[in-house]
Design brief:
By secondary structure, this protein is mainly β. Helices cover 11% and strands 39% of the residues. The chain has two domains: 1-100, Hotdog Thioesterase (Thiol Ester Dehydrase, Chain A, Roll); 117-276, Hotdog Thioesterase (Thiol Ester Dehydrase, Chain A, Roll). The protein is built from three helices and 13 strands, in the order E-E-H-E-E-E-E-E-H-E-E-H-E-E-E-E. It has a 13-stranded antiparallel β-sheet. The longest helix is centred in the N-terminal third of the chain and has 13 residues, at 25-37.
């Protein structure tokens, strides 16, 4: 998130910490949000973000982030962000900000049935889940270098063709403190939100993202920020599949704080083209 300002609402984000070839989608979303945040006044916080993945990014290269100021009203500001590499669009985002205000408050808190990770209460590390599906020469998984801690509560492994329709639960946080300003925490949540959202759409069919008969890719991603949350403390992320049809699948993700309050809702559509 250490973006450099190149002037005229143009920013550059550093390369991905991944050692793989493709940039993690959550990084593009987070850096795009970070660029948009730098063009609004401090009294405004993001409330919604809508992104379209247009082209795979190169993890070894930085991202150029061009912000267009669409509107600045008394309460809301809207921005469009183009994420570019070598002059080609990797992602295009629309971001909306609002001056925080008092209003009618309601959500339906849940009772999180599983405790956050501790030395006594451990879960399966997400990286271990991914690596269990990799061949020995493909390990370690390049995503191990991402600055996040992810504990998978109920990993659906091994997949043997059995449909998995139960929600997938994870405890997640950005690794390391983010300070007291809300902006980095919102960007941190956006960074976390993309993880696992595309592979989950294959589970109702009993397939893995490693199945060579299926081509899968993220198409778009949306986040609604309901309440401020710290992304450097444990958040419970529940993912479920809404529908699959037409070579696409739609997944929903919900972030809850430790008290069970809904802090953000995510939706992502992914390609799941059958090649078998």
């Amino acid at each position: 998130m250490d973006l450099s300002n190149e002037g005229q609402d143009l920013f550059v984000g550093p390369p991905s910490p991944d050692l793989g070839s493709r940039t993690y989608g959550g990084q593009v979303v987070a850096q795009s949000l970070g660029a948009a945040q730098r063009t609004v006044t401090d009294d405004r916080a993001v409330h919604s973000l809508h992104s379209y993945f247009l082209k795979a990014g190169d993890a070894a290269k930085p991202l150029a982030l061009k912000v267009e100021r669409l509107r600045d009203g008394r309460s809301f500001s809207q921005r469009q962000v183009l994420a570019l590499q070598d002059g080609a669009e990797v992602m295009r985002s629309l971001v909306s900000f609002q001056v925080p205000e008092e209003g009618l408050e309601w959500d339906e808190p849940i009772t999180i049935a599983v405790d956050p990770p501790t030395n006594e209460q451990s879960y399966t590390d997400y990286c271990d889940v991914i690596e269990s599906a990799l061949l020995s020469h493909e390990r370690p998984w390049p995503g191990r270098h991402r600055p996040m801690d992810v504990s998978y509560v109920n990993p659906p492994l091994p997949l043997t063709g059995r449909p998995v329709t139960e929600p997938q639960g994870m405890w997640m946080r950005v690794h390391g403190p983010l300070g007291d300003d809300q902006g980095p925490h919102d960007a941190g949540l956006a960074y976390l939100a993309d993880l696992g959202m595309n592979p989950v759409i294959l589970l109702p069919h009993g397939y893995s993202w490693r199945d060579e008969r299926i081509t899968e890719a993220s198409l778009d991603h949306a986040i609604w920020f309901h309440r401020p949350a710290r992304a450097d403390t444990w958040l419970y992320y529940e993912q479920r599949v809404e529908s699959t049809s037409g070579g696409r699948g739609l997944a929903r993700g919900r972030f809850y704080d430790l008290d069970g309050h809904l802090t953000a809702t995510c939706m992502q559509e992914g390609l799941m083209r059958w090649n078998g």
